[in-house]
């Protein structure tokens, strides 16, 4: 049961922004946004052919500026948001915008693969997510499993809820929340909770994590000093509504039950430098992916705090006779939290990691030097979870 | 010859008399066998078998005429003398006979007179006999009457006693001569009981009863009042017992009375010291308790065993009651003592407590002697044991607070740059404190203390109490609290000063290498710990201490790294790198970083050894250093629009791996200065790198970074184990900032050097 070797794809630019194409559930597809100050930035659409272990790529131009964050619409495959830096008059401005991919990017690439490299198509701007009052967007969040009409952008110390209208060509701010306090507060990251009818948002600023109710735009909880240093990323457990994972500059990954913000439920310290990204697997929430600037990607199996702490519960009927014995043996094994594996294919800091939206056993990670690595959950673990 | 015969006459007769006597008495004559032939000789003129004829013949045959003549004259002479002797004898005997005849005649006359008198006497006697018979005949009737009368008299006396009894009792009552009253009543009781069917006696009995009831009442009253002395009291009880008062009730009353007296146990006032308290408790309570027990036993148990009460199982009952009573009282006393002991929190002078406990324990032995089956002494021992364990606990907490206090002191003294002195004084004062605590605790096992030979104090107290819960716990506490410094401080940067972390780390390391084994050996020697139960081995503690030391040092590195990182991060984040002016100096923050690093180096150097480093190149600080110095960087940034189709990924990664080895930023450090410094510098530079990557630079921004990095390069190499590490990371920073630069025009190396040297 040898695991497939990781597949590596090299971008010629440095890159930080990575997302799975959320609305796409058949093909394994990731979007990568590049960071280059000198050249036109690109969005690489990476298709992974699982059977042949081959990567297909398409490049779209993103001429507005270097991409710091990218988000794919959960409803429309072709729509995405980016946060980018625009330099003009020796000033660097952070902006956010909604884009549409040209409709023929796929067909075009197939017909004339050579052209795509030399003459890439350009993204079509749908609307800006900025107004005069609020700029410096850190990230844009789509409403999880929504109809692609609502996004939240985090700009400085404001959280803006936008309604996209007329095929996303117009965006209006429907409500805002402002983080108030001493000093210059700034949201670094956020996550829209898929639970509670998508009415909650979690944000990170400095060392604190805050929860917001989007109906009233008011704070509902606050984890002060969630991490010893800056909190870099958050993710909600897709199956347990109160569970939240966070990571930060103290090299730790912490798991919280937001009903009790005093103590983390669990804390991991596997990385030897800042942890930049934490992601729950969309289906099997015991699988947690963390990316760090120690150039490592770590896949952990957090069984004890997952929605299936006793393993996959199998009905008797599902068991085929031949498997009976095997099943019993397995159920007796104590399930422990453990690091499944550490991936060391990257040479530089890994700033992003994402699970595929199509294949729950597959994930991509992106390091600063532009290397995208596609990996799979080890087969042994996969079968243990499934069977 | 003649003389021989004459001389022999005397003895010869005697011989004959002898012979005859002998014959008579049946004695054989063998003893005289020599004489016999002589006497049998017929020629012996004095012998009984003398034959004159034979004698004459013999003479004639043997002797000459002259001799015969001589014999004849001699014989004639002898015969003559014999005749004259015989005549004299006859005369004499005649005179005597005459006088005897006279006497007899005289006697005959006297007897006649006597006979007359005897006749007279017998006549008189007969007369007397007759009179006497007559008198006795007349007196016969009166004698019977007198006997009867005297009987009546005694009865009357008794009756009188009975009739007088109430009055007498009353009198006694008045005079409070209870004993006499009871004695009188006891004498009359049976009679009264027997004749109670007669109305008069019934009356007396009733009266007596009434009086005795009153008496009993009074006795009880007296008994109850309790003012009386123990002797009075016991007398009361004795009397009451004789009055058939139920013994059980009496026991109860006696005990309750005793209890009321004993209730005045001194309450524990905290202003008296423990020894005084125990003393008072012993003197007042234990002594009176012993007194009560003694008198009680005297009264109800020993006494009752002798008397008729024994049959009623009183001793058992009384014993049971006594035990319950003593237990109850003792329990209350003990609870008081325990409360008092618990108040004894100050650990300054243990000897007082030990002495107090000793006295307490010793005095309770008296109770053991009096009441062999009582649980009281055992409970007492348990109290002592509890007190001892409590004491050990207090010592532990005292040690702990002492430790924390010393840490606070150390914290305040940290400002002075004398870490080694601080360390040695801290460690010495802790050691001294441990020793003094051990000495204090040792008092519990001193030989002159009565309870020290209890099995608990010989075994468990030493091994579990002192070794485990005092010494081992303290060491564990030290490690534990050290670890806590790491955790609590982890949240918000540094409530713990880094120097303290460093100091504690060294302390733990010292503990690991020597102190722990020293302390444990000391304990084992002092207390002769016999390891019956499993005890924590030295190695476990050492491992724990080492772990704590490692953790502290790691944390120190982290904290110091963080402090420098924060400076670097702020300096990068708060600056507008696009619109900055051309660099003229090294930024102040870099100087600050170097200064801080140097002072950290000094600080660590005070406590830790240098450690090994790789050999320096001769001109480490002068190394040329430019944006594109690394071939790796060149390869990366030169690529602009090269086809980025899936290339031979293996080759690419291999190339990369050739040039870099992975650096673990937050990793464990070794116990030496170089390793610590390397760790701190790694953390700082990595932060620098990550911050740079988040910014956009203008031309002068990049140049400023170049200058800064060169400056760091000049000073930081000397602190780390491998200077290539610093080179590599600084390369990376400059490379990254070049890449984040809108107008990457690097500064001339010579200019950079000039600026840096200018400082």
Automatic annotation (TrEMBL), chain A:
User: So which domain of life are we looking at?
Assistant: Eukaryota
Q: Where are the WD repeats?
A: 224-266
Task: Enumerate the InterPro entries for this protein.
Answer: Beta-prop_EIPR1-like (IPR059104), EIPR1 (IPR040323), WD40/YVTN_repeat-like_dom_sf (IPR015943), WD40_repeat_CS (IPR019775), WD40_repeat_dom_sf (IPR036322), WD40_rpt (IPR001680)
Give one Pfam hit by family name: WD40
Could you tell me which residues belong to the region Disordered?
318-338
Q: Where would I find the EIPR1-like beta-propeller domain in this sequence? A: 7-299
GO BP annotations, alphabetical order = protein ubiquitination; regulation of cellular localization; regulation of transport
Keyword check for Repeat, yes or no.
yes
Q: Which UniProt keywords apply?
A: Repeat, WD repeat
Q: Which Gene3D superfamilies did the record assign?
A: YVTN repeat-like/Quinoprotein amine dehydrogenase
Q: Where does this protein have compositionally biased stretches of type Basic and acidic residues?
A: 323-336
User: Which family does the record assign?
Assistant: Belongs to the WD repeat EIPR1 family.
Q: What is this protein called?
A: EARP complex and GARP complex interacting protein 1
Organism this protein belongs to? Dicentrarchus labrax
Automatic annotation (TrEMBL), chain B:
InterPro entries from the xrefs? Cullin_repeat-like_dom_sf, EXOC2/Sec5_N_dom, Vps51
The Gene Ontology CC terms held by the record are: cytosol; EARP complex; GARP complex; membrane
Query: Which of UniProt's keywords are assigned here?
Result: Coiled coil, Endosome, Golgi apparatus, Lipid transport, Protein transport, Transport
Q: Where in the cell is it found?
A: Golgi apparatus, trans-Golgi network; Recycling endosome
Is Phosphoprotein one of the keywords UniProt gives this record? no
* Source superkingdom: Eukaryota
**Residue ranges of every copy of the Exocyst complex component EXOC2/Sec5 N-terminal domain listed in the record:** 45-256
User: Where do the TM regions start and end?
Assistant: none
A single GO BP annotation from the record?
endocytic recycling
Q: Which SUPFAM superfamilies match?
A: Cullin repeat-like (SSF74788)
> What Pfam families has UniProt attached to this entry?
Sec5
Binding partners and assembly: Component of the Golgi-associated retrograde protein (GARP) complex. Component of the endosome-associated retrograde protein (EARP) complex.
Give the protein's biological function: Involved in retrograde transport from early and late endosomes to the late Golgi. The GARP complex is required for the maintenance of protein retrieval from endosomes to the TGN, acid hydrolase sorting, lysosome function, endosomal cholesterol traffic and autophagy. Acts as component of the EARP complex that is involved in endocytic recycling.
Q: Per the similarity annotation, which family is this?
A: Belongs to the VPS51 family.
Q: Kindly provide the name given to this protein in its UniProt entry.
A: Vacuolar protein sorting-associated protein 51 homolog
Organism, per UniProt?
Answer: Dicentrarchus labrax
Q: Which gene encodes it?
A: vps51
């Amino acid at each position: 049961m040898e695991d497939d070797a990781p597949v590596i794809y090299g971008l010629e630019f440095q890159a930080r922004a990575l997302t799975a194409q959320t609305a796409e559930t058949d093909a394994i597809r990731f979007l990568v946004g590049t960071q280059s100050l000198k050249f036109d930035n690109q969005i690489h659409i990476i298709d992974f052919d699982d059977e042949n272990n081959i990567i297909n790529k398409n490049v779209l131009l993103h001429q507005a500026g270097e991409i710091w964050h990218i988000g794919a619409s959960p409803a429309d495959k072709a729509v995405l948001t980016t946060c980018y830096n625009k330099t003009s008059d020796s000033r660097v401005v952070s902006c956010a915008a909604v884009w549409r991919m040209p409709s023929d990017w796929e067909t075009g690439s197939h017909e004339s693969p050579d052209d795509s490299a030399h003459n890439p198509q350009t993204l079509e701007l749908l609307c800006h997510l900025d107004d005069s009052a609020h700029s410096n967007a850190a990230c844009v969040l789509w409403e999880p499993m929504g109809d692609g009409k609502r996004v939240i952008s985090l700009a400085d110390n404001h959280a803006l809820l936008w309604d996209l209208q007329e095929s996303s060509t117009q965006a209006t701010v429907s409500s805002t929340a402002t983080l108030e306090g001493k000093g210059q507060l700034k949201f670094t990251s956020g996550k829209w909770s898929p639970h509670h009818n998508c009415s909650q948002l979690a944000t990170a600023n400095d060392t604190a994590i805050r929860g917001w109710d989007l109906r009233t735009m008011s704070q509902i909880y606050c984890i002060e000093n969630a991490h010893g240093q800056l909190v870099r990323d958050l993710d909600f457990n897709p199956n347990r509504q109160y569970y939240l994972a966070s990571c930060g500059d103290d090299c730790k990954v912490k798991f919280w039950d937001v009903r009790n913000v005093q103590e983390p439920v669990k804390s991991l310290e596997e990385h030897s430098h800042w942890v930049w990204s934490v992601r729950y697997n969309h289906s099997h929430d015991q699988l947690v992916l963390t990316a760090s600037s120690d150039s490592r990607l770590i896949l952990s199996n957090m069984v004890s705090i997952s929605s299936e702490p006793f393993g996959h519960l199998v009905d008797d009927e599902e068991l085929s006779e031949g498997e009976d014995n095997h099943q019993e043996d397995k159920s007796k094994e104590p399930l422990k939290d453990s690091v499944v594996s550490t991936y060391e294919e990257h040479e530089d800091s890994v700033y992003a990691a994402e699970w595929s939206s199509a294949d729950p056993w597959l994930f991509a990670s992106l390091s600063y030097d532009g290397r995208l690595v596609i990996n799979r959950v080890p087969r042994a673990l996969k079968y243990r979870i499934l069977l | 010859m003649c003389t021989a015969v004459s001389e022999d006459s005397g003895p010869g007769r005697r011989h004959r008399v002898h012979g005859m006597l002998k014959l008579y008495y049946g004695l054989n004559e063998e003893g005289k066998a020599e004489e016999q032939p002589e006497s049998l000789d017929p020629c012996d003129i004095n012998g009984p078998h003398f034959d004159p004829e034979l004698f004459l013949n013999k003479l004639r045959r043997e002797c000459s005429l002259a001799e015969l003549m001589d014999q004849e004259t001699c014989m004639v002479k002898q015969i003559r003398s014999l005749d004259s002797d015989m005549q004299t004898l006859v005369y004499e005997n005649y005179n005597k006979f005459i006088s005897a005849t006279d006497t007899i005649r005289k006697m005959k006359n006297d007897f006649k007179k006597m006979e007359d008198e005897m006749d007279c006497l017998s006549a008189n006697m007969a007369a007397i006999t007759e009179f006497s018979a007559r008198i006795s005949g007349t007196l016969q009737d009166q004698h019977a009457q007198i006997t009867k009368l005297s009987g009546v008299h005694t009865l009357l006396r008794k009756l009188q006693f009975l009739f007088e009894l109430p009055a007498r009792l009353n009198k006694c009552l008045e005079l409070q001569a209870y004993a006499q009253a009871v004695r009188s009543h006891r004498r009359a009781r049976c009679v009264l009981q027997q004749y109670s069917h007669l109305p008069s006696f019934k009356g007396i009995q009733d009266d007596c009863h009434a009086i005795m009831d009153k008496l009993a009442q009074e006795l009880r009253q007296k008994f109850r009042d309790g003012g009386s002395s123990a002797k009075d009291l016991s007398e009361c009880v004795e009397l009451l017992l004789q009055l058939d008062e139920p013994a059980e009730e009496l026991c109860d009353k006696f005990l309750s009375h005793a209890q009321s007296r004993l209730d005045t146990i001194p309450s524990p006032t905290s202003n008296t010291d423990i020894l005084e308290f125990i003393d008072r408790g012993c003197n007042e309570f234990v002594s009176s308790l012993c007194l009560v027990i003694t008198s009680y036993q005297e009264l109800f148990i020993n006494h009752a065993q002798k008397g008729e009460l024994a049959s009623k199982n009183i001793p058992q009952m009384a014993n049971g009651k006594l035990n319950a009573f003593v237990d109850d009282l003792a329990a209350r006393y003990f609870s008081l003592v325990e409360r008092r002991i618990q108040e004894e929190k100050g650990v300054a002078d243990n000897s007082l407590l030990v002495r107090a406990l000793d006295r307490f324990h010793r005095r309770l032995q008296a109770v053991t002697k009096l009441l062999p089956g009582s649980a009281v002494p055992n409970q007492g021992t348990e109290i002592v044991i509890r007190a001892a364990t409590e004491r050990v606990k207090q010592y532990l907490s005292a040690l702990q607070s002492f430790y924390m206090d010393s840490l606070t002191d150390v914290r305040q003294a940290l400002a002075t740059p004398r870490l080694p002195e601080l360390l040695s004084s801290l460690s010495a004062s802790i050691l001294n404190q441990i020793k003094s605590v051990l000495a204090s605790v040792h008092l519990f096992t001193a030989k002159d203390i009565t309870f020290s030979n209890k099995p608990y104090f010989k075994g468990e107290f030493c091994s579990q109490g002192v070794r485990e819960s005092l010494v081992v716990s303290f060491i564990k506490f030290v490690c534990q609290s050290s670890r806590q410094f790491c955790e609590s401080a982890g949240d918000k940067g540094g409530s713990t000063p880094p120097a303290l972390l460093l100091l504690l780390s060294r302390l733990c390391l010292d503990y690991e290498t020597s102190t722990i084994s020293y302390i444990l050996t000391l304990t084992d020697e002092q207390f002769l710990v016999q390891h019956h139960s499993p005890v924590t081995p030295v190695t476990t503690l050492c491992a724990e201490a080492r772990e704590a030391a490692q953790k502290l040092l790691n944390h120190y590195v982290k904290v110091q790294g963080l402090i420098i990182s924060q400076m670097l991060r702020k300096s990068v984040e708060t600056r507008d790198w696009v619109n900055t002016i051309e660099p003229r100096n090294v930024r102040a923050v870099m100087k600050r970083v170097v200064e801080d690093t140097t002072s950290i180096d000094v600080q660590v150097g005070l406590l830790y050894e240098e450690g090994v480093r790789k050999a320096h190149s001769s001109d480490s600080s002068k190394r040329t250093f430019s944006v594109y110095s690394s071939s790796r960087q060149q390869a990366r940034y030169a690529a602009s629009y090269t086809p980025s189709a899936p290339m031979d990924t293996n080759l690419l990664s291999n190339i990369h791996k050739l040039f870099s080895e992975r650096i673990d930023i937050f990793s464990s450090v070794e116990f030496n200065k170089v390793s610590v410094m390397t760790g701190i510098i790694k953390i700082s530079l990595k932060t620098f790198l990550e911050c740079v990557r988040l910014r956009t630079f203008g031309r002068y921004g990049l140049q400023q970074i170049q200058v800064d990095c060169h400056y760091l390069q000049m000073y930081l190499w000397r602190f780390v184990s491998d200077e290539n590490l610093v080179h590599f990371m600084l390369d990376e920073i400059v490379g990254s900032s070049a890449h984040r630069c809108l107008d990457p025009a690097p500064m001339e190396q010579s200019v950079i050097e000039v600026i840096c040297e200018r400082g």
